[in-house]
Amino acid sequence: MTMRIEPIDATLGAVVTGVNLASLDDATWAAVHAAFLEYGVLVFPAQHLDASAQAAFARRFGEVEQLSPKGETPTFAIANIKPDGSLAQPSDEQYKILKGNEGWHTDSTYMPLASKVAMLSAVVVPPEGGETEFADMRAAWDALDAKTQAFLEGRSAFHSLYYSQSRAGFAHRTDHQYGFHDKGAPLRPVVKVHPETGRRSIYTGRHAHDLTGMAPEESERFLDELLESACQPPRVYRHTWSVGDLVVWDNRCLMHRACPYDPKYPRHLRGSRVSGDPASELAPTYADPRAAGYRPSASNR
Asked: How many domains does the chain have?
């Protein structure tokens, strides 16, 4: 097979065919990785990888996150299907997380070490809806006027899954579930310099709050407006899933969100996340008042 890379009609993204991700040689991997850095998101139609093959492809990018507390699997389900086969209901934690994911975000920014790469493969898809959208934060940064760029340089924002879920109307308890912890809220720069390409991008998303140097209400309004203006054509690509598709994207320069679908239909995407490099993705954390065990102190801000 001869690999073909066809750019998507947007500032990001390409469709890659003529490659078998389950049996990559080093030369093909190098070409895939180069395309990944250039386009930010790559779509591989009809790969039909099993969990083991997907995990092996994810490991090409680095150390895979273990989202389960037991750390037994490098893949996880983004699905509305419960262990007993029934579909998640609005009262279920699973349902609340899926609905929250319909807001623009970058993976794991609410953890001390954010993700640098993520991927999803389609196992079960609804008859309509349930797409995944991606937004190019490199192009969004480039589109800002010089005054706004100067305003953002040097500023940071806190990131919290408690915050983003509460704004979506959901409350969660502090436990061992990934993201709902008492480790604190990471403080991250809102301008991200990509560690491999050197390009700047906007680094906020639904988890971001309390921009430094601004009152909370002012910050919330500003970040909402910034995100809304950033995630607009031609900087957006919407992927309509077919069973067997695999999509991989760069969390260091893109945002993404799930699109709504009728919850009476099952939807199952298999995910993998790759841990960020500590030099560029590890952030200091400060106590989060929404988490159990919060203790106010001068170091909170």
From this structure: 1
CA–CA distance, 130 with 38 (Å, rounded to integer): 26
CATH classification at residue 248: 3.60.130.10
Question: Coil, helix or strand for 222?
Answer: helix
Cβ(107)–Cβ(273) below 8 Å: yes
* Angle at CA of residue 100, ends 78 and 94, nearest 5°: 45
Residue 210 sits in which domain range? 4-300
- For the chain, the distance separating the N- and C-terminal CA atoms, rounded to the nearest angstrom, is 55
> Do residues 154 and 211 make contact, with C-beta atoms less than 8 angstroms apart?
no
Distance CA 255, CA 133 (A): 8
Q: How far apart are CA 78 and CA 204, in angstroms?
A: 22
What pLDDT digit, counting tens, does each position of 52-110 carry? 999 999 999 999 997 755 555 689 999 999 999 999 999 999 999 999 999 999 999 99
Half-sphere exposure of 23 (CA within 13 A, CB side): 3
